[in-house]
Amino acid sequence: MQAILVHEHGDSNVLRWENVPDPTAPGPHEVLVRHRAVGLNFIDIYFRTGLYPPPSLPFTPGVEAVGVVEAIGEHVQDLQPGDRVGYVYPTPGAYCERRTLPAERLVRIPDDIDDQTAAAMLLKGMTAQILLRRTFPVAPGHTVLVHAAAGGVGSLLCQAAKHLGATVIGTVGSAAKAEQARANGCDHPIDYRQDDFVEATRALTHGRGVDVVYDSVGQATFERSLDCLKPLGTMVSFGQSSGAIAPFNIGLLAGKGSLYLTRPSLFTYIAERQALEASAAELIDWVRQGVLTIPVNQTYPLASAAQAQDALEQRLTTGATVLLCE
């Protein structure tokens, strides 16, 4: 089969489309999946650059995909060949045509959700679900600040937070992205290229600050995001698209109002099968009810993963990007 391989860390040029051995036949409790679509995420870039160390070199990037079960191993009872499934898996390896995985890490994809939507929604959607329901349980009356509000996770955070009754403030990098965020439920988009987002957030909250900041940008926004919080507010740092956050004195948290800070990982929250099922089930319900619209605004052939990663890294995308295997 063919797959993307990374032999050394670097820019997108290290992504190579190569012939590789077929995956092993599924063993006990395992399933062989033929991919139809692969989700593109910033974590793929983190592994490519070495910010997140892969298990070894060379490796195949990708942590999210949707496909069809081709074969099952012994003791697999809930899945059969032909079933449509999706997964989010902490070990990279999704940028390929076929993959063998533990059955307990797979979730069924309903027939009324197409492959592209499913590949775009699992990692980003479950991330939004755990951030809003478990990391900081958002409720009516809360005010939230979402950075990169027109991005893949940001657009879903805006939609779901609005559904949960929150007032949503979001930062974006252009007028077009402001309109995109507004369409996704963001009450107050802030173009950070035109306005100071701290001053704007303080003005919108009449000086009080927000209950929670959801920050996937990292270095460029982290410390100033703390200034957007009300006393006892929560800073949720869940990504670093602008670079790693520099070490800082935790005394700042006390000085800025006894703030809470957390760096969640989806994989911790869904490590147990029951938690994975619960998160995926609510996400699927949100999509079916129309609470979430999954904007797949860019698609590329899997072989063109380098071009797709460049567009994501350069912030030229909105919504989600999907790599197509067929």
In the CATH hierarchy, the third-tier topology of the largest domain is known as Quinone Oxidoreductase, Chain A, domain 1
How would a textbook summarize the main sheet?
7 strands, mixed
CATH A-level architecture of the largest domain: Alpha-Beta Complex
Mean pLDDT: 95
Question: What proportion of the residues is helical, as a percent range?
Answer: 25-40%
How many β-strands, per DSSP? 15
What letter string, H or E per element, gives the SSE order? EEEHEEEEHEHEHEHEHEHEHHEHE
* CATH class (first level) name of the largest domain: Alpha Beta
| CATH superfamily caption of the largest domain | Medium-chain alcohol dehydrogenases, catalytic domain
* Dominant shape: globular
Proportion of strand residues: 25-35%
Broad structural category: alpha/beta
Provide the number of structural domains: 2
The poorly predicted ranges are none
- Taking all Cα atoms into account, the compactness measure Rg is 20 Å
Q: How many angstroms separate the termini?
A: 13 Å
Number of helices, counting only DSSP H or I runs of 4 residues or more: 10
How does this structure look, described?
The protein is α/β, with parallel strands linked by helices and 326 residues long. It folds into 2 domains: 179 residues, Medium-chain alcohol dehydrogenases, catalytic domain (Quinone Oxidoreductase, Chain A, domain 1, Alpha-Beta Complex); 124 residues, NAD(P)-binding Rossmann-like Domain (Rossmann fold, 3-Layer(aba) Sandwich), CATH 3.40.50. It contains 10 helices and 15 strands. The strands form 3 sheets. Strands 3, 4, 5, 6, 7, 14 and 15 form a 7-stranded mixed sheet that branches. Strands 10-9-8-11-12-13 form a 6-stranded parallel sheet, sandwiched between helices. Strand 12, helix 7 and strand 13 form a beta-alpha-beta unit. Helix 2 packs across helix 3 and helix 2 crosses helix 9. The two termini are 13 Å apart. It is an enzyme of class 1 (oxidoreductase). It catalyses: 2 a quinone + NADPH + H(+) = 2 a 1,4-benzosemiquinone + NADP(+).
